[in-house]
What we know:
This is GH16 domain-containing protein. The protein is mostly beta strands. The chain has helices at residues 55-60, 195-200, 261-264, 278-284, 313-317, 321-331, 333-336, and strands at residues 22-29, 37-39, 50-52, 64-67, 70-73, 86-88, 90-97, 100-108, 115-122, 131-136, 145-149, 165-166, 184-187, 204-211, 214-221, 235-238, 251-259, 294-304, 347-349, 357-362, 365-370, 376-380, 383-387.
Amino acid sequence: xxxxxxxxxxxxxxxxxxxxxxxxxxxxxxxxxxxGFTFFTGSDPTHGFVDYxxxxxxxxxxxxxxxxxxxxxxxxxxxxxxxxxxxxVRITSNQSYNSGLFLFxxxxxxxxxxxxxxxxxxxxxxxxxxxIDIFEGVNTQATDLMTLHTQQGxxxxxxxxxxxxxxxxxxxxxxPGQSSNQGCGVTxxxxxxxxxxxxxxxxxxxxxxxxxxxxxxxWFQRSAIPSDIRRTPDANFPFGSNxxxxxxxxxxxxxxxxxCGDWAGNVYSQFNCPGxxxxxxxxxxxxxxxxxxxxxxxxxxxxxxxxxxxxxxxxTTTTTKATTTSTTATSSPTSTLxxxxxNNGYYYCMNSGVSQAYEICNNGAWxxxxxxxxxxxxxxxxxxxxxxx
Length: 389
Ligand SMILES: *[C@@H]1O[C@H](CO)[C@@H](O)[C@H](O)[C@H]1NC(C)=O
Ligand SMILES: *[C@@H]1O[C@H](CO)[C@@H](O)[C@H](O)[C@H]1NC(C)=O
């Protein structure tokens, strides 16, 4: 039994894009899911009617749960909200990323009048390091809206390879002729990409590929998850002279559910929702938020390269730089592996198979951690597994 999974490197022969094979870098799932995240408890930057609670409050009030390996994040659906807003959760990954293939496997997403759920990534010093909204919507919106938000100087070409519908093409938050902070948005045309339809389809996987060519987002409903990613993306945001890749730096993963506020509240009357006041509805109808929850199987982040655990030696000799680094990590990490942007997120065990201690490369510095009670750390590629000895 594997009780404390921190991160696992696996052979992913099947998971490949046209350009490259990918190796698992970080996995967020199960009982350790929340360990990789920090709970945001400030006031909502988007002015929502929400009271973001800390980790211990969320856990003690049942807003965060892990059942049978599935992660749940609820909003309070039992009490009339105080003037602070309805209790909810907003979490940010400790680890930050500068590229990668991100697979967000969800069973259920929050939905309903007054809600504004989002699954996104964002860099420091907003908007200078960019924002990528992978899953976002408000009230009873029909399908997902995928958006980039940037500083001035990032626009999307009129013609690009995507199945979604372009809403706006200037990613700059203050672009003339667009709503404030509208960014460059693309609407998903798949009915199961949001809300009740997504939930009734049993969820699926949001995939985001971020590399030097740009950012692509796909939605695969559960019955149509492919073994590799080859089809045209739902949204495609190419980099180049139109939009420098340097506008996207050190992104952390964010999951949140707010209510009303700058978007859901401002357009509340445009949906067939009860009453005329979003805030009034959210405050006094707790049971209306029983469907406003996330159910998450896993978030996985992959980087290009074949795993070092491959049995083929010929493969090892033709590996990429990333693989070479991870090979070093496996053999003697302490003496040779430097923690820098290129290996951000790499884990290694202090004494593989013997001690509980591990280290993770976090923004240029090794940060130590320990496996759960009764387990020891095992090095696996550039990643680790905490397991019973
Ligand atoms: C993530 O950050 C939070 C708060 O900064 C910290 O309490 C937690 O231990 C961190 N998690 C890991 C795995 O380092
Ligand atoms: C709150 O939501 C959960 C999950 O949907 C549900 O099981 C529960 O019955 C709800 N509670 C109330 C009081 O509506």
